[in-house]
Design goal:
mainly alpha, rod-shaped, 129 residues, membrane, DUF3619 family protein, DUF3619
Length: 129
């Protein structure tokens, strides 16, 4: 439908400017138009056959946006897998920290003490070595 509307606009613009064309140029344009219409009539059956053969290779995917839907589904699946693997890695890191904390000699309450963190920072500074 848009192509028809676009063609009509072009036709109107060309008809509006036809007054400025010389008669010899108008005859040449008319001859070219007739020649183009004759060629169009010859190629029309080939286009119909090409469109029919193209439709036979759809394999049941008659939806116009099937490829886009499949691409979006693949993208969403990839994102879900990425988030899942990231969460599994994060949980395994937390498990390592928890197991190190539980296997240490210090009680867990000691890690809540601010003095311990100050002592660790003072002990690991380059000045103390």
């Amino acid at each position: 439908m848009n192509e028809e509307r676009y063609g009509n606009r072009i036709r109107q613009a060309l008809n509006h400017g036809i007054k400025d064309i010389s008669p010899a140029s108008a005859r040449r344009l008319e001859a070219a138009r007739h020649q183009a219409l004759a060629r169009q009539k010859q190629t029309a059956p080939e286009l119909v056959m090409a469109s029919n053969t193209r439709e036979s290779f759809h394999f049941g995917l008659d939806m116009p946006y099937a490829k886009q839907i499949l691409a979006i589904m693949a993208l969403l699946l990839g994102m879900w897998i990425s988030f899942y693997l990231d969460s599994v890695q994060y949980i395994s890191q937390l498990e390592e920290v928890d197991s190190a904390l539980l296997s240490d000699d210090l009680p867990p309450e000691a890690f809540m003490d601010n003095d311990l963190f100050e002592w660790l920072q003072d002990d690991s500074s380059p000045d103390s070595q």
